[in-house]
Amino acid sequence: MSLxxxxxxxxxxxxxxxxxxxxxxxxxxxxxxxxxxxxxxEPGRPVDITIPKxxxxxDIGAILVDKGVIESALAWKVTLYxxxxxxxxxxxxxxxxxxxxxxDALGLLAEGATVDFVTVTFPEGSWxxxxxxxxxxxxxxxxxxxxxxxxSGDVTSELxxxxxxxxxxxxxxxxxxxxxxxxAVTLAQRIVDEFERQVAAIDFSAAEDRGYSVYDAIxxxxxxxxxxxxxxxxxxxxxxxxxxxxxxxxxxxxxTVSYAIGEHIxxxxxxxxxxxxxxNTRLYAGMPPTPIGAPGRSSLEAAAAxxxxxxxxxxxxxCSGHHAFSETNAQFxxxxxxxLALDC
Length: 344
Known about the structure:
The protein is 47% helix and 9% strand. The protein is mostly helical. The strands form 3 sheets. A two-stranded antiparallel sheet has the order 1-2. The protein has a two-stranded antiparallel sheet with strand order 3-4. Helix 9 (214-227) crosses helix 10 (234-246).
């Protein structure tokens, strides 16, 4: 029996409707599979998240996934597209829950931050006194409170050897968010913990094979941080320091003299250079008793992997802070003469 024209039309429409329904069902199932809709009925464990200033709405998804708030960053992006409102999310600290749908998470974030914070940045090479000064200037914690926390013994570091009382060089110079609930101790411990995390990610076996501990390498890194102005020179400066230490020669690093007198100065006088201190590497052989500042990641990596070769000297070679490196004293003297002739 053949179909009439009308019957064929009804059949075609039925097929089309079925296909549309299948596509729609497939779309629903796909959105569910990537987490746009979650089957979780009740919120899970409460968590706090921090959204730094300048974070894009899309990048917030990665933060939410990392904390277990949502299942998928892709689902977050789809939700932002469907719901909008991502641009209105403010920087700040939020109390959320694990196992939320992206839509629910978006709704909670749209209500605004639950905890305000201030951002503080500690430059590479900062001394403990610099950390305290920056904290006192930019947060509700005073300079005196922060220094007390650093010297009281309440803040601990697994990297500080027995017999060393100072945390100098064991705070990681970076940018941190400080909330009202932070105390001097909690903030200092967080900065120390971050330094431990950075160090744990670096292989110091090359330094250890030469007989230097990780703490020794951190001390070397602090001197590299004070001396280097060009990143690619850091491993060469590390090589000079290790080679001179191995040879039992004085390091002669002016930055250690600045640390000894307690002033950030580069134009040292004759009397400055004669300062009697174990930190003065122009007078005492070996390394200073502690690091002379907070090394950044690049300096730590250079101390862990110094350049190969027999470099023993370096001196500034131009007005941009580059150095000339040499193996012999004769070449060093020529390089030094060229440095003294610079007109910067």
